[in-house]
Structure formats: structure tokens, C-alpha cells
Amino acid sequence: MSLSPNTTLAHYTILSKIGAGGMGEVYRARDSRLNREVAIKLLPADVSSDNDRLQRFEQEALATSALNHPNILTVYDIGTHEGSPYIVAELLEGEELRDRLDQGAIPLRKAIDYAQQIVSGLSAAHEKGIVHRDLKPENLFITKDDRVKILDFGLAKLRGNTGDAQGSEDATRKAITNPGVVMGTVGYMSPEQVRGQLTDQRSDIFSFGVILFEMLTGKRAFHRESFVEVMHAILKDDVPDLDGVGSRSTPALDKEET
């Protein structure tokens, strides 16, 4: 179900469609109560009956709303429109980190700045007992003023869900092995995710390290021809030394690496 301009959801008026993906459609909208523009992510009715997708959607809303940090996307509201659940969040202007990396390595000073912001956001989540579990360049957004925002907590594990821990890991594997998205996700998985084991904040730290490597070198740490080879490399191979790929090192970078 696509929403046309001027469609009203509660006190939000749709202005235009921003994009669409496996987890729903995203729209620019006007909040008439606070007179501001917002982003609305809508899970179409025809897929809201899919328990896995619905669970991820609800998990994203629950996890993100529990966090209040400048480096994490802010969720304002949730609701339902004609049977389709939606999330209202701050409207971001800029691009995904993936778009930046597609152009090559990021300048050292800028890469360190981004890295410090990612660590700050992750630390805030971890302090709340929330593990992201799907950290990758597609889930990191760079605003026009160079602020990093962590997106998509749809696979997040929240403190208090330990009773359903194994089921949560099964949901992670289902999402990761979904055809069409596997190569974009597997390369940033931690070894315990590859093995299908339970995860904690160390899994996010591993994924962050892989992203940092790519920011500094412009190359993927575990680039292989197939996702099976990528998974094997994550389990068996060491990440190449930064010196070996012509990267640069500074005291600030050494601090990030430790």
C-alpha cells in the first residue's frame, strides 16, 4: 500500500515518498501538532501478516524509542494506519555511509570522527542493554552536517528478552540468509553470528571494527566471491593489517583500535 501526498495518518500529513525497502516504505510527512517535518516508516498491510517482518518492525520501534542519543535515530511516535503499523522518526538529510564508501576510502581525520560518533552511539545502546546485531554501512547515516546516525534496530536484542534468546538468534539467521541481502550483511557479521551462537555487545564491536577498516582502506575486510566464502573467512582468516593495504595510522586511530 503506497500513500499518496496529503494522506493523513493521525496528525501527520504525507508530503512525498522517500524510498522503500524490505522493511517498509518511508515517507516525508508534516506533523501538524508540532509544525515540523518527520519521516514515517510504514509496514505495508500485505507483509504485516509476516510474523518475522512484523517482529523486526516492532523490535525496531521498541529498541530505538528506549534510546535518546545524538548518534541514534530518534523515534517520536508509533501508530497503525488501515491495519499497517508505522514508526514516526526524525527526518534525516544526507546519505548512507555505504554511499560514501562506494567512492573509496574516507580521509583519515573524517574517518576517525565518524568512528568516534559510532562508538558513542553504540555505547549508549549497550549501556541500556541493547545490542544492535546488524551494524553495517547501510545502517549508518551521515547527515549534511556530518553527524552519524545509527539506524535500523530491527534485529536488536534487548535486555529482558533472554528467555527467548534462542528464538531471537533464529530470527537473526532468517533475516541474514534472506536472498538478495545476504552479501550486504554477512561481511559485517561477527564470528558468533556466523556460527548461530548467542550474541552480546562484543558482536557489535566486531562489526564496528570491520566498518572502520573499510572506512580507512576503501576495501572490505572479508571480500570473497560468495557468502559461504565470506563466512568462512570471518571464522578462519585475520583481517589484513592496515599497513598492508596502504592505510595510515595516528595516535587517535590507535586509541580507537584498542
Quick tags:
2 domains; alpha+beta; 10 helices; 9 strands; Phosphorylase Kinase, domain 1; six-stranded antiparallel sheet; three-stranded antiparallel sheet; Transferase(Phosphotransferase), domain 1
In short:
38% of the residues lie in helices and 20% in strands.
Q: Can you offer a commentary on this structure?
A:
The chain is an alpha+beta fold and 258 residues long. The protein has 2 domains: 8-90, Phosphorylase Kinase, domain 1, CATH 3.30.200; 94-257, Orthogonal Bundle (Transferase(Phosphotransferase), domain 1), CATH 1.10.510.10. The chain contains 10 helices and 9 strands. The chain has helices at residues 45-48, 51-65, 97-101, 108-127, 165-176, 182-186, 191-194, 201-217, 227-236, 251-257, and strands at 8-9, 12-21, 24-31, 36-42, 75-81, 84-90, 94-96, 140-143, 148-150. The strands form 2 sheets. It has a 6-stranded antiparallel β-sheet with strand order 1-2-3-4-6-5, covered by helices on one side. The chain has a 3-stranded antiparallel β-sheet with strand order 7-8-9. Helix 4 (108-127) runs antiparallel to helix 8. It is globular. The N and C termini lie far apart (47 Å). The model is unreliable at 162-168 and 179-183 (pLDDT under 50).
Topology:
Elements: E1 8-9, E2 12-21, E3 24-31, E4 36-42, H1 45-48, H2 51-65, E5 75-81, E6 84-90, E7 94-96, H3 97-101, H4 108-127, E8 140-143, E9 148-150, H5 165-176, H6 182-186, H7 191-194, H8 201-217, H9 227-236, H10 251-257
Antiparallel strand pairs: 1-2, 2-3, 3-4, 4-6, 5-6, 7-8, 8-9
Helix pairs in contact: 4-8
